[in-house]
Amino acid sequence: MAKVADTILFLLDPLEGWDSTGDYCLSCLFAQGLPTYTLAVQGVSRLPPKKQIDARKKLSKAVEKRFPDDKLLLLDTQQEAAMLLRQLANQKQRHLAFRDRRAYLFAHTADFLPSEENNLVGTLKISGYVRGQGLNVNSLLHIIGHGDFQMKQIDAPVDPFPLNPRVIKSQKDPGMAMEICATDAVADMEEDLKVLMKADPDRQESLQTEVIPDPMEGEQTWPTEEELSEAHDLLKESSKVVKKVPKGTSSYQAEWILDEDGESGGEGDEYDDVEHEDFMEEESQDEGSEKEEEEECETMTIGESVRDDLYDEKVDEEAEEKMLEKYKQERLEEMFPDEVDTPRDVAARIRFQKYRGLKSFRTSPWDPKENLPQDYARIFQFQNFINTRRRIFKEIEEKEVEGAEVGWYVTLHVSEVPVSVVEHFKRGAPLIAFCLLPHEQKMSVLNMVVSRHPGNTEPVKAKEELIFHCGFRRFRASPLLSQHTAADKHKFQRFLIADMALVVTVYAPITFPPASVLLFKQNSNGMHSLIATGHLLSVDPDRMVIKRVVLSGHPFKIFTKMAVVRYMFFNREDVLWFKPVELRTKWGRRGHIKEPLGTHGHMKCSFDGKLKSQDTVLMNLYKRVFPKWTYDPYVPEPVPWVKDEISSTVPEVDME
């Protein structure tokens, strides 16, 4: 309702102002975009005179946190009610950008005509006032919570609430004359019905949301023999190594001459299993000393606590275990970002075969069109999104829209609407329709900048299903999280981090910014909790989200600039496979793998300086990740807040 409301009246409690539920609602409204509002308090005059001053001071302090420059109006008498109505009528209207460029309508009445073929689908007649922009029958209509639809025609019935009603007064009984006039107006609505505009099939927007991919479109021809030989020659040239050798040295002798940095300086080239066994014995001795220390500790007997059965009945043990595991993962991610253990049962060259090494994450090239998933064949992409958005907004400002103008009371004939929409409306839920701009029904990749809401502390993982409120749309999706930077590559984040703006990436229908974004999570009890708030950044499938994996190893033997590193890999083949990737350490050293040692994954590495024994050797691997196609436009209604019944002694005020 707040998305289409002209004015919101906040009614405050005379003692507290608002509770935690009210504060939660205010957070959502501020993040979504607050229209014109007025603050009023009811019940201050019923308090004792001494408490009235304290109550007003307390209210003013509470109001200053959220509304620092606004005045609080009283609402206890008829005069104060009249002042409030005057304030609502005369205050300046605030504009929300996402709704000012689109036509929207709040349904006053709705009627459903089932089709002849199927009673579950039919034509929906929505009557209400056109707001925002002019409404064209050829554009698409989005009913919030139900999807996109086409319109058949627009009618102009008699306005049920005219600004200047024609009243015929009778000398005998004026009241009776007024009632007859109102009845006649309702009866004449069908007679005075005018058809403003009918849909033109040639100019009407299509409901197509996805591209039908052609499996033969990406077919490639096999390279010719000339191309294969040319690639082979290039490979030979790149594999040649230039060395300084004495004159008269043959190519066979040159193979045995080491580089200057290849000299290990002593015992580095000799490696056998005896040294490995000695190290294992030292570790076993350390473990024995730790056990002796544990045995020296004292033990104390603590009395048994009384078990509270009523409390334990309310605890869901399975949910508690899952939440504990998520907290552990979030804590590990903070302490050791992106670090993973190299698997022992699977070769690292197979487990990380989709990853690559980069010389520099910021400057190394990465083609955005490389290895795209199959879902990218289903979406739409703009050649220049910013220019398209600017052109559409310019047409809205300059071009006159054919059809219903702003302020008219109209009836929209919406085709192929399910009967559940009317049933939802009859149960008391508001029916709100927004007119879509060109291309806004088509699927693409949306990027949104969000910040975590301070009231939520539960860990939120990437690819976890969330509920999105993006502009006028509401949908469910499993987003990717990434850093908000100005570079061409953006690092993937595994958790939603507090006090840091992140970018959320999902498959969703195109929406032209500006548009507010709210992220909710559905709890097990059916309620929606606010996770994060932000705004729509762009519609760009080429924005690259890069996932980083860090493999760690430990220096076993350290020489001048050489070191033997272990525990990063566990077989010789993996060391040879990842040999071209650059190494780094936590203390800022850089190096590379020289050669494998033995068959257990130990490797000789050279660095740009001497390593410390407590340093850790790291290898960064990267791959591009894409969101999952989990878009669902149908979001279940949240369970309403449970309100306590409060007996009020405040007298009722006739607002009429």
TrEMBL record:
Its main location: nucleus. InterPro entries: AARP2CN (IPR012948), Bms1/Tsr1 (IPR039761), BMS1_TSR1_C (IPR007034), G_Bms1/Tsr1_dom (IPR030387). It is found in: Nucleus, Nucleolus. One of its GO terms (cellular component) is nucleolus. GO terms for molecular function: GTP binding; GTPase activity; U3 snoRNA binding. It holds the Pfam family RIBIOP_C. Keywords: Nucleus, Ribosome biogenesis. Transmembrane segments: none annotated. Residues 1-94 form the Bms1-type G domain. GO terms for biological process: endonucleolytic cleavage of tricistronic rRNA transcript (SSU-rRNA, 5.8S rRNA, LSU-rRNA); maturation of SSU-rRNA from tricistronic rRNA transcript (SSU-rRNA, 5.8S rRNA, LSU-rRNA). Residues 278-312 are annotated as: Disordered. It comes from the Eukaryota. Belongs to the TRAFAC class translation factor GTPase superfamily. Bms1-like GTPase family. TSR1 subfamily. Required during maturation of the 40S ribosomal subunit in the nucleolus. This is Pre-rRNA-processing protein TSR1 homolog. It comes from Vicugna pacos. The lineage of its organism: Eukaryota, Metazoa, Chordata, Craniata, Vertebrata. The gene is TSR1.
